[in-house]
């Protein structure tokens, strides 16, 4: 038995050796026409082959420079496939009989063109039709391939006549490919940006059809870039990217694909912005490959902790969508992060949102997307780039229409203010956000608002304009219980309000202020730091002391009911800095007033050296009225026509009052009426002709200089003014105006002509020279002696009178006094 087996083995070895020797000596190129005809006949395409070589292990024929022609109905000007190295696995015994039986194909580094027509027909669908004369015209039959493998291939995919996408490092496996029978297909790819196989397709399909071939299988992606995957699928560019991982089961028949994705996406980016949350997708999709329209009957998407249900349609060819999204109790923080990624403003926040919204437009141009729907917001807080503190919204109802949103039933708080009402937001998904509103607020603190509305603490250099303009704008109606700036408090405020380019304008504005009323406008310019407040105002019946205490350093200085009109501006600086920046022009009127901390009559008595005048004990001065115009420059108020009406006289003043350090620099002229002048001593006052004068009506005229401060004023005689009055013969006299009281009353009533002469005199303006008259003594004055020379007129007469009174002492107890000629 052993001898038989040994002999049989020797024979087999000898036969194999003979076969190997025979095959080694065989020139396989003799089979080229047969191989070329066989391949061409089975593929139904023109085929050309290069040099052929026989390999013994495994037994195969290697062919160089293989080219397979394209279906003539696809005019691409390129062959269907080319390969520099093709291996044909052949059967041994047929080959020994010089017959070729191909078991499998292996194409190494081929270039394959996959082309689709607009109707959805692929160029590979006609492979397998027998040809007549190699033209590719089908004549029945078909190709049978036990196994086809493509190793490290180059695959070009595109639509006929359009730009194609080319991908390298493609692996394809095809088995049991025969006419009328199902086949198995596998595909693996290394997508751009990855180093290992990141895409794998496993499917069963067939039989091949003239227009489409049914497929059933799955697509598996492993850490694949979405942008690279879209390019591979020839889906066009998109604004979204990320790392995709998961599986999609699919059924393809007659250009209709049903897909069931189970995917996760990390590092999601939309329009280059990081979403900051991963996505999980599950559900059903229906994609029409002919039209490129994807129907979404129901897709469940979880973005972080945000559960969304999405339905609608997406046109992948035109990059448009019309989808609806529903979220119940979604975390607002994650929704805002997603909105920012889709091109919205960089708003963050917290809270919960119920949302039912429809989105339509181009997902490649997210600024064009329109929104329709509604939502309900609860316990929310928003952090806007323009705000340094969160905007808290405990409750609000949301309605979306186009690119605008209406927020109704708002209850919101910002800083120490609580707002109620409604607003609309326009372009809320774009970089420029605008708002319209009708709001009421319990309290609005301008200093706090300035700090809140900045781009950021310290982001603006002092006095320098902001480098970046705010993109937020607002316009609407505002009512406030209280509007506060430092100590200034406006109550029952009603105003139209605008906020544009970091400028807040309240105009027209009405309010109650310190017991009176205010009308006008307020503008807060926050384009530089510190912000500037400009005011146009008309005040009526305002408590003067409270207003001055709130806006200046003057405390307990002036009391009464104040009326004022004009313009003013200041910078929002702490302490006296705001007063130092105060500028403006104001016309003021005070009634029922009081000058605190000073008794003017006592001061005038000291200047005029009143004889026998009893000092008054009250440390204040009652004012019948006060009028004047103020020009304020950098906290220093200047006046040329300040007029104070007292009980018993009037006082005019010109000069400056420093509202910052309270320093005074005034030239004052007081005129006491006849009764008060007689009480003060008349012409018998100690300073007569040096610090006090008497006019033709017997009224004392006392020029004085006022310096020091409001707390400690210093009064001194104005000797130069006395000499000037005597020299120019200009003494304020009520006789040619009526009484001083009536002249001042005319001014208080708004009669500009009334009291003009007295104002000119009181403030030092030169009046027209009166006609010279001969002085006549009062009725109780004894007639002058006949030896007295006649009085000279004009300046000479005044000098004679001055010489007489300075050279002779006055009588001890005169009955009457000769009145100096005016």
Fold topology:
Blueprint: H1 2-25, H2 32-43, E1 47-48, E2 52-55, E3 60-68, E4 81-90, H3 92-96, E5 102-108, E6 111-116, E7 145-159, E8 164-177, E9 183-189, E10 199-205, E11 215-225, H4 226-232, E12 240-253, E13 256-270, E14 273-274, E15 279-288, E16 293-303, E17 306-315, E18 320-331, H5 332-341, E19 348-362, E20 370-383, E21 391-402, E22 404-414, E23 417-426, E24 433-445, H6 446-452, E25 472-485, E26 488-500, E27 503-513, E28 516-525, E29 532-543, H7 544-551, E30 558-571, H8 577-580, E31 583-596, H9 600-608, E32 620-633, E33 636-646, E34 649-658, E35 664-672, H10 674-680, E36 693-694, E37 700-708, E38 713-717, H11 719-728, H12 740-748, H13 756-763, H14 794-807
Parallel strand pairs: 5-7, 6-7, 24-25
Antiparallel strand pairs: 1-3, 2-3, 3-4, 4-5, 4-6, 7-8, 8-9, 9-10, 10-11, 11-12, 12-13, 13-14, 13-15, 15-16, 16-17, 17-18, 18-19, 19-20, 20-21, 21-22, 22-23, 23-24, 25-26, 26-27, 27-28, 28-29, 29-30, 30-31, 31-32, 32-33, 33-34, 34-35, 35-37, 36-37, 37-38
Task: Give an account of the 3D structure.
With 822 residues, the chain is an alpha+beta fold. It has 14 helices and 38 strands. It has a 38-stranded mixed β-sheet that branches. Strand 20 (370-383) and strand 21 form a beta hairpin. The termini are far apart. The model is unreliable at 131-141, 455-467, 733-790, 792-800 and 805-822 (pLDDT under 50).
Structural class category? alpha+beta
Strand content: over 45%
Q: Give the averaged pLDDT, no decimals.
A: 76
| Main pleated sheet | 38 strands, mixed
Number of helices: 14
Helix content: 10-25%
Overall geometric form: rod-shaped
What Rg, in angstroms, do the CA atoms define?
Answer: 52 Å
Ranges where pLDDT stays below 50 over 5 or more residues in a row are 131-141, 455-467, 733-790, 792-800, 805-822
């Amino acid at each position: 038995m052993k001898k038989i087996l040994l002999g049989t083995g020797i024979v087999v070895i000898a036969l194999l050796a003979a076969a190997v020797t025979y095959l080694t000596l065989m020139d396989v190129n003799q089979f080229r026409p047969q191989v070329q005809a066989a391949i061409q006949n089975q593929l139904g395409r023109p085929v050309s082959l290069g040099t052929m070589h026989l390999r013994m292990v495994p037994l195969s024929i290697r062919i160089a420079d293989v080219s397979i022609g394209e279906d003539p109905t696809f005019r691409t000007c390129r062959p269907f496939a080319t390969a520099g190295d093709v291996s044909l696995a052949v059967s041994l015994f047929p080959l020994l009989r010089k017959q070729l039986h191909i078991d499998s194909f292996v194409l190494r580094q081929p270039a394959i063109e996959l082309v689709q027509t607009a109707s959805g027909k692929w160029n590979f669908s006609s492979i397998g039709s027998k040809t007549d004369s190699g033209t590719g015209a089908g004549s029945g039959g078909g190709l049978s391939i036990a196994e086809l493998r493509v190793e490290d291939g180059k695959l070009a995919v595109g639509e006929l006549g359009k730009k194609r996408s080319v991908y390298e490092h493609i692996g394809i496996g095809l088995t049991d490919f025969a006419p009328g029978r199902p086949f198995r297909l596998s595909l693996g790819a290394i997508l751009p940006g990855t180093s290992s196989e990141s895409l794998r397709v496993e499917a069963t399909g067939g039989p091949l059809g003239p227009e489409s071939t049914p497929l059933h299988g799955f697509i598996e992606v492993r850490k694949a870039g979405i942008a690279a995957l879209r390019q591979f699928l020839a889906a066009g560019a998109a604004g979204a990217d990320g790392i995709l991982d998961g599986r999609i089961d699919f059924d393809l028949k007659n250009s209709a694909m049903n897909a069931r994705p189970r995917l996760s996406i990390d590092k999601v980016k939309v329009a280059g912005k990081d979403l900051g949350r991963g996505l999980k997708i599950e559900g059903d999709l229906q994609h029409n490959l002919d039209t490129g329209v994807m129907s979404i009957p129901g897709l469940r998407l979880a973005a972080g902790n945000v559960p969304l249900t999405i339905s609608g349609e997406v046109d992948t060819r035109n990059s448009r969508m019309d989808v609806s999204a529903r979220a119940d109790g979604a975390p607002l923080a994650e929704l805002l992060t997603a909105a920012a990624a889709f091109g919205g403003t960089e708003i963050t926040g917290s809270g919960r949102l119920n949302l039912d919204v429809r989105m339509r437009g181009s997902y490649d141009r997210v600024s064009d997307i329109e929104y329709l729907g509604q939502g309900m917001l609860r316990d929310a807080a928003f952090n806007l780039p323009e705000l340094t503190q969160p905007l808290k919204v405990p409750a609000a109802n949301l309605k979306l229409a186009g690119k605008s949103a209406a927020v109704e039933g708002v209850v919101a708080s910002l800083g120490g203010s609580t707002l109620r009402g409604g607003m609309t937001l326009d372009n809320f998904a774009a970089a420029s956000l605008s708002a319209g509103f009708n709001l009421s607020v319990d309290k609005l603190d301008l200093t706090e608002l300035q700090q809140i509305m900045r781009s950021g603490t310290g982001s603006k250099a002092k006095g320098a304009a902001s480098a970046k303009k705010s993109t937020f704008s607002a316009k609407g109606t505002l009512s406030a219980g209280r509007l506060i700036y430092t100590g200034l408090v406006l109550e029952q405020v009603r105003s139209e309000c605008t906020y544009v380019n970091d400028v807040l304008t309240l105009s027209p504005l009405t309010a109650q202020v310190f017991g009176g009323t205010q009308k006008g406008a307020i503008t807060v310019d926050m384009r530089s730091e510190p912000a500037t407040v400009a005011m146009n105002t008309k005040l009526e019946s305002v408590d003067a002391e409270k207003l001055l205490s709130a806006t200046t350093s003057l405390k307990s200085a002036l009391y009464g009911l104040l009326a004022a009109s004009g313009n003013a501006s200041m910078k929002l600086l702490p302490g006296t800095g705001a007063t130092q920046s105060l500028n403006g022009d104001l016309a003021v009127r005070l009634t029922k007033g009081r000058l605190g901390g000073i008794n003017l009559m006592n001061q005038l008595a000291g200047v005029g050296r009143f004889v026998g005048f009893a000092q008054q004990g009250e440390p204040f001065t009652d004012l019948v009225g006060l009028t004047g115009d103020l020009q304020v420059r950098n906290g220093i108020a200047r006046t040329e026509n300040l007029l104070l009406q007292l009980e018993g006289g009037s006082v005019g003043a010109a000069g400056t009052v420093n509202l910052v350090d309270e320093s005074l620099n005034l030239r004052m002229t007081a005129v006491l009426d006849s009764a008060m002048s007689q009480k003060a001593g008349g012409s018998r006052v100690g300073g007569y002709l040096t610090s006090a004068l008497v006019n033709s009506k017997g009224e004392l005229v006392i020029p004085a200089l006022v310096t020091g401060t409001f707390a400690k004023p210093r009064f001194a005689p104005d000797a130069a003014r006395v000499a000037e009055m005597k020299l120019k013969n200009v003494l304020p006299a009520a006789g040619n105006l009526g009484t001083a009281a009536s002249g001042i009353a005319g001014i208080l009533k708004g009669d500009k002509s009334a009291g003009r002469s007295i104002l000119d005199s009181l403030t030092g303006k030169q009046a027209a020279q009166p006609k010279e008259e001969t002085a006549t003594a009062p009725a109780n004055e004894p007639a002058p002696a006949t030896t007295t020379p006649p009085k000279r007129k004009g300046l000479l007469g005044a000098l004679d009178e001055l010489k007489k009174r300075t050279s002779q002492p006055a009588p001890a107890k005169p009955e009457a006094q000769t009145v100096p000629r005016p």
